[in-house]
Write a structure and sequence with these properties.
Length: 312
């Protein structure tokens, strides 16, 4: 990551006072989720806006649809196996949307100007299509997941805490081997970008390995947008490399935090960024970096399913 010498020099003087003020405070927790790690790798300024400034973001149709579809696929397995049909799953979409609205009333703002209800209907239909496509990729009547929406957390020897939500964990009855499954409502990555997409899954595999002592047998990304499945068999060397990568990533985050140097990194993903108006790459000016927390704390990095583009 690039660093700013000027910003660093200016922060040395300011930092001494800040350190004195924080001397009596408990040390912040070093914590990363796959979403926040992906934010920093995509754009350090985006990470800052979400984790340090904690700026609110309006709901987006894509992320909200992702939440509804994930909810349906999670609850589908509450049904007896023989009832897990595409028709039944499609019927669950509207109630899942109603459930989300009850929990997050702000989501209704997506359809504020939808006077005749046609935009909502079109959006629900697109969610139903994604749910239907799931059935071309797996047969849920033949699956009994060991876990769904599983929260996992572990602390590495370095003190870095890793945590996140896993969509589904399957366990082979005969061997006990683990398959980690994640649903994506977007399309599968282009050839050559699969490994980047697998980063999140390696993150989960590392956490499970550290928690239970065995490497998951298979990592599986199910892309409902394009009807494709990516599979990967990790090994210990992979997961050690992932651990080193996360340590390097955290060091970069700490440097950026100490120097208050959060560079924008424009890319195609800017189209989905809620903070363009504050981004120098788009003529904006970020607000001053908050004095506290000086290092991201645990709550700022609290795991939150499907809150970033990486989670779709
Ligand atoms: S608009 Fe792009 S460059 Fe700017 S903060 Fe958002 S993701 Fe980063």
């Amino acid at each position: 990551m690039d660093t700013s010498v000027a910003a660093a020099a200016a922060d040395v003087a300011a930092g001494e006072t800040a350190q004195e003020q924080q001397a009596d405070q408990p040390a912040p927790v070093k914590s990363l989720s796959p979403s926040r790690a992906a934010d920093f790798m995509t754009c350090p300024l985006l990470y800052r806006f979400r984790t340090i400034d904690r700026l609110p973001e309006p709901p987006s149709p894509e992320a909200t649809r992702g939440t509804v579809v994930h909810g349906v696929l999670e609850r589908l397995f509450d049904l007896p196996a023989e009832e897990r049909t595409a028709e039944e799953a499609v019927r669950m979409v509207r109630p899942e949307w109603d459930r989300l609205l009850a929990e997050e009333p702000d989501a209704a703002s997506l359809f504020d100007s939808d006077d005749d209800g046609s935009a909502l209907q079109e959006w629900l239909t697109s969610a139903e299509a994604l749910v239907q496509r799931y059935f071309t990729l797996e047969d849920p009547r033949r699956l009994e997941p060991a876990e769904r929406e599983l929260y996992v957390e572990t602390t590495l020897e370095s003190g870095l805490r890793l945590r996140g939500y896993i969509d589904r964990v399957d366990r082979a009855p005969a061997t006990g081997e683990i398959r980690v499954v994640d649903y994506k409502t977007g399309k599968a990555p282009r050839a050559g970008f699969e490994q980047r997409a697998m980063f999140q899954m390696r993150f989960y595999a590392l956490v499970l390995w550290r928690l239970h002592g065995s490497v998951p047998r298979l990592l599986q990304l199910v892309y409902l947008g394009s009807g494709e499945v990516l599979r990967y068999e990790p090994d210990e060397a992979d997961l050690r490399a992932t651990e080193r990568k996360l340590a390097a990533l955290w060091s970069a985050i700490e440097r950026a935090t100490e120097r208050k140097d959060w560079r924008p990194s424009p890319s195609k993903l800017c189209d989905w960024c809620a903070h363009q108006a504050l981004c120098p790459s788009y003529g904006g000016t970020p607000p001053p970096v908050p004095d506290t927390p000086v290092v991201p704390d645990a709550e700022a990095d609290a795991p939150s399913p499907r809150t970033s583009g990486a989670d779709l």
